[in-house]
Amino acid sequence: MTDYPPELSAEEQNFIFTELKDWSIAHGLAVRPAPSFVQQSQDPAGVLATTAPVTIFPSLFPRRCFEEGLSIQKAYNELYSAIARDEDWLQGIVEELVHVDDFVAKLWQTHLAVKKTGYVQGLSLGLFRSDYMVHEDPSHSNPAPGLKQVEFNTIASSFGGLSSQVSAMHRYLLNLGAYPSSTSAIIKADALKQSQSTLQLAKGLAAGHKAYGESRCKRSLCVLFVVQDPERNVFDQRHLEYALLEEYGVRSFRLPFGKTLAYTALDEDQTLIYTPPHSPSISYEVTTIYFRAGYSPDDYVKEEDWEARLHLEKSRAIKCPSILTQLAGCKKVQQVLATPHSPHLKRFLPDDAVASRLLKTFAPIYPLDKSDAGKEARKLATDPSSSTRYVLKPQREGGGNNIYRKAIPPFLQKLPETQWPAYILMEMIEPPPLKNAIIRNGVLERGGVICELGVYGVCLWRDGSVSGEEGEILENFEAGYLLRTKGDQSEEGGVAAGFGAVDSCCLV
Ligand code: ADP
Ligand code: MG
Ligand code: MG
Predict the structure, then answer these.
(1) Residues 322 and 234 in one domain
(2) Which domain holds residue 413?
(3) Which CATH number belongs to the domain containing residue 388 in this structure?
(4) Are 496 and 402 in the same domain?
(5) Is 153 an active-site residue?
(6) Which of this chain's residues are annotated to bind substrate (predicted)?
(7) Which residues fall within 8 angstroms of residue 26, CB to CB, at 6 or more apart?
């Protein structure tokens, strides 16, 4: 299908563009404009919004891969909730990183500090997203496309709100007859997949809220969204907040991470009390903290921000995610799981049939330490002829942190060898070539693209070590999908980081 999507005449393009820019604003498929696009002096009150980067057409995606990704999400939820409950195992991972990664070290110290006074909440919530690309292995006798996992996100998995909107927008354009008739055999109602991510992620937060139980201090209950400030991707989060209230009757508030200590307090029994600045006479009991900040060292500007994290972690509120769950999302964990013939996957997923389905989605990943595999990887990474097949990743989230292909050897050359184990080396997944058109800041870019499927998952579990009871999973469900699409000239795919666009799947 190399002629998909078709070229548009100037009139067709204008028509779609007008529809798209109005529909997106009318339905909150939007972001706050980048300062490079609208200067602060032009919008001093911060009232402007613009269409989020989106694709004009839904991208083609193999149906079998899509269905497989969604159907293994529950197993991935189970895997990562089991890792998050296995402190000893995680400690082994963290010990390899603490000397080379200050951020991981700080997170671990914060966990230990909470442990000293004692965790008081045994429930833990994960709103996860497992990211994949389609991989075709031409050397294989049957080069059927399969999914390979890019990474597994355990904190601040974003775009669930916008994803539901972009699939609805593509459907609107189809129903309106905006797409050229030559696409009618491809863009069909049953091929377009509506992402249920907004509702499902809100359902997850509502499940945490409900499981928390009654107020301990006769206050109204709320969920707290701990956010960055400023946040351009605010509408993505707003969709979840609105669904939480409208569909589940759960009130939530937004709290910039840097204001945590100013507006929250701990009761003597560690109940987290939020007193909103707009109504200081009313305070709320927080059932669930949903972190949309705190995943990057940039969020911890001053020492007080680490105090704030500790304060939240000590509280009785359910954390989404807890520190241990956040650490389970380290790229190092993914690398250790992907080590061939390792016993780790079996430790967490005893069912061989389930484990083998996940195993099929692992791409080769190597450590850069002094183990035999690490030494081999060091050779591959430092040789300019082989490094072009790899990406080098630190233990970071949020995009823009990786080193790609031929940039790896010079990067490592400048980095003291003692720091190398902070990184993992991953084989590049090479998805089949596709085309699409992306609208960003009102400008249309057309050409070759690379798509990344994200599958959301919700998991709520009880960590037995806190309450002395058996640990158990209380909720586990797949929670919709995200398709992100970037120009094939860009290695990075983050939408918020300015590289990609939100998209939806047209199954083929
Ligand atoms: P982050 O947690 O910062 O999002 P990722 O591991 O998702 O880190 O890497 C960022 C981007 O880099 C991905 O969205 C993807 O576009 C690209 N990328 C990462 N790993 C691979 C890989 N193995 N093959 C191809 N592209 C990759
Ligand atoms: Mg990530
Ligand atoms: Mg990513």
Answers:
(1) yes
(2) 364-428
(3) 3.30.1490.50
(4) no
(5) yes
(6) 129, 155-158, 231-233, 237, 292-295, 484, 495-496
(7) none
